[in-house]
Specification:
It is a single chain. It is built from 6 helices and 3 strands, in the order αααβααββα. The chain has 125 residues and is mainly α. The protein has a single domain, classed as Winged helix-like DNA-binding domain superfamily/Winged helix DNA-binding domain (Arc Repressor Mutant, subunit A, Orthogonal Bundle), CATH 1.10.10. Strands 1-3-2 form a 3-stranded antiparallel sheet. Helix 3 crosses helix 5.
Length: 125
């Protein structure tokens, strides 16, 4: 069985030199919040909406047009994404523009796309 305490000790590298583990075990609340974040990003429509907002702040109508979705559906997903602090909103006049909430979100997505682009290591589970 996997021992989370050992994996999360300072200096544990998870098999990757230069990538230290967490200093301490995350709280149950933090684990739940992270699971919720991954659950929200696990929906392909929501993920596409977030990706549409990465390069620059984008209006709901532009996101809807780009993804061939209704503005109301995009707005619904954006409300969920804002509540989870995945995207942020900025009003400019009558329009609201959405972008990634911070560099953590864009970095997470960049890292995950790099991860899936890696060749398989040839080790079967």
């Amino acid at each position: 069985m996997l021992n989370m305490t050992n994996l999360l000790e300072p200096g544990h590298s998870h098999g990757h030199p230069g990538h230290p583990g967490l200093a301490e075990a995350p709280s149950a609340e933090a684990v739940d919040q992270l699971a919720d974040l991954f659950h929200l990003l696990g929906d392909p429509t929501r993920l596409r909406i977030v990706l549409a907002c990465l390069a620059q702040p984008t209006a709901v109508g532009d996101i809807a047009g780009l993804l061939a979705l209704s503005s109301s559906l995009v707005s619904h997903h954006l409300r969920l994404l804002r509540a989870a602090r995945i995207v942020k909103a900025e009003r400019q006049g009558k329009q609201v523009f959405y972008s990634a909430a911070d560099a953590h979100i864009s970095g997470l997505l960049t890292n995950m796309f790099e991860h899936i682009a890696e060749p398989a290591n040839g080790i079967d589970p």
